[in-house]
Amino acid sequence: MLAVLISDNQNRMDAFDSGTAWGFLSLQAIKEGLKTHAIGGFDKDKAREVLNIPEEYNVQVAIAIGYQGEKDALPEDFQARELPSNRRPLVETIFEGKYK
User: Fold this and answer.
1) Which of 15, 34, 48, 59 could form a disulfide with 29 if both were Cys (CB 3.0 to 4.6 A apart)?
2) 59 near 44, Cβ under 8 Å?
3) What stretch of H or E contains 27?
4) Rounded distance, CA 4 to CA 68, Å?
5) Got the DSSP string for 29-77?
6) Sheet of 57-66: strands edge to edge?
7) How confident is the model over 2-61, as pLDDT tens digits?
8) Within 10 Å of residue 24's Cβ, how many Cβ atoms?
9) pTM: predicted TM-score of the whole model, two decimal places
10) What's the confidence (pLDDT) of residue 7?
11) Could you tell me the sign of the dihedral formed by the alpha carbons of 88, 92, 97, 98, in that order?
């Protein structure tokens, strides 16, 4: 679970900081032979309750960390979903100069 402390002089960069922390956590996990998966769709209030996270912390994201198992160990319907995603080409995302 990634949560950041909220203070009166918060600079509103908590989401950016959380993303950066997750990115570096993920890179270290890969180096250690682990996989990570960020989960945004979870019950933040329930997580706060179960993990006893104080109110002054903003719960940002849950992160699953573990070793990747064999595809064959998954149920067939999940095996079918284990394909590389069709991502948008970089040429459509990265450009030089002003925002178009």
Assistant:
1) 34
2) yes
3) helix 14-31
4) 28
5) HHHTT-EEEEE-SS-HHHHHHHHT--TTEEEEEEEEEE----GGGS-HH
6) 2-5, 57-66, 35-39
7) 665 555 556 677 788 888 988 999 999 999 999 999 898 999 999 989 999 888 888 888
8) 10
9) 0.66
10) 55
11) negative
Residues facing 57 on adjacent strands: 5
d(CA 74, CA 36): 18
Q: Give the other-Cβ count within 10 Å of 72's Cβ.
A: 7
> The tokens of 91 are what?
């040429």
CB under 8 Å to 42, separation ≥6 — which residues?
62
5 three-state secondary structure = strand
What's the token pair of residue 78? 């999940």
The number of residues making up the chain comes to 100
| Residue 76, both tokens | 């067939």
Residue 5 sits at φ, ψ, to 5 deg, of: -70, 135
Amino acid type, 65: I
CATH code for residues 2-92 = 3.40.109.10
